[in-house]
Amino acid sequence: MSKKYDVCAIGNALVDYEIEVEDQFFADNEVEKGLMTLVDEERQGTLLAEVAGKVKKKQGGGSAANTIFGLAEFGGKGFYTCKVADDSDGTLYTSDLINAGIDSNLDPSNLYKGTTGKCLVMITPDAERTMNTFLGITTDFSVNEINEEAIKNSNYLFMEGFLVSSPTGLEAMKKAKKIANENGVKVSLTFSDPSMVKYFGDQMKEIVGDGVDLLFCNIEEAELFAGVEGMEAAKEAINKVAKEFVITKGKEGALAFDGTAYHEIQPFPTKAVDATGAGDMFAGAFLYGINHGQTHAEAGKLASAASSAVVSKYGPRLSQNHIKEILSQIDK
């Protein structure tokens, strides 16, 4: 019997504030370029004041959210489990999910008291994105938000690595994984960011536990997780903890393992303007593909084209015109 959802994802709910800055901004404000850094509300407020009037766009984001949006944009059916507050950002976030046809645990008429998390996505002319994140109410994301029925009614559970930075988030991941394992639902995980593997390595190893069905990471994250250097050593190490996996290599494409064979996924050349959500979109398109009859090689090709398209524009979303273009590209 087919399940109601392709994927049930759990992750941080953050409203992305997209801002264009020069490298000098980082030096002036002591921001570490190219990483996701957790900051408090006061620090984020200070940075926001520095870029007043430069916010290009605001929209619902977060690693797993971007993935579930990507899945939905290709026509997949997703459920998103998260936590937002009853402020204007929380209302915006909830509306984004509803408009995209994504079911969630949120009740628009009864959101939590507090402040919705925000992520300052600072984009430099080289297309690299640097994120400073105040988690707000999603710091308290916990087992209370987990929807057991949504997990049971999904082919895959998808969890974002950012959640390991919070003790309650880690416990929520463990509970979700247990429900999935007990109900024959495949467990998928993304490491999300090198900083999560570097600074929360023990917690990441804890959630990986005795293994996952599908793991998404980039080469740097794989090396950090396994304490090795180079693709050969990294893929051998990841093979021990994931039945299937994808290691993305930026401009050089990706490597997918389907449980039996490796598949080199070729990149689609593009002019990058904003790398925000590239890995998230790759995961969303890949999950769509394998849920809809595609092989890992085919899903990888779709995901490569989708992530290439998303970096050629600002923001982590694709329009239906983008989707049509991608589908015509991969049919060639």
Set out the fold topology.
Layout: E1 5-10, E2 14-20, H1 23-29, E3 36-38, H2 41-50, E4 55-61, H3 63-73, E5 78-81, H4 88-99, E6 103-104, E7 117-123, E8 129-134, H5 148-152, E9 154-160, H6 167-182, E10 186-190, H7 194-199, H8 201-208, E11 212-218, H9 219-226, H10 231-239, E12 242-248, E13 254-257, E14 262-265, H11 278-291, H12 296-311, H13 320-330
Can you tell me about this structure?
By secondary structure, the protein is an alpha/beta fold. The chain has a single domain (5-13, 61-116, 136-330), classed as 3-Layer(aba) Sandwich (UDP-N-acetylmuramoyl-L-alanine:D-glutamate ligase). Helices cover 40% and strands 23% of the residues. It has 13 helices and 14 strands. It has a nine-stranded mixed sheet, with helices on both faces. The protein has a five-stranded mixed sheet with strand order 3-8-7-2-4. The longest helix has 16 residues, at 167-182. The protein is globular and about 50 Å long. The chain starts with a strand and ends with a helix. 52% of the residues are buried. The mean pLDDT is 94.
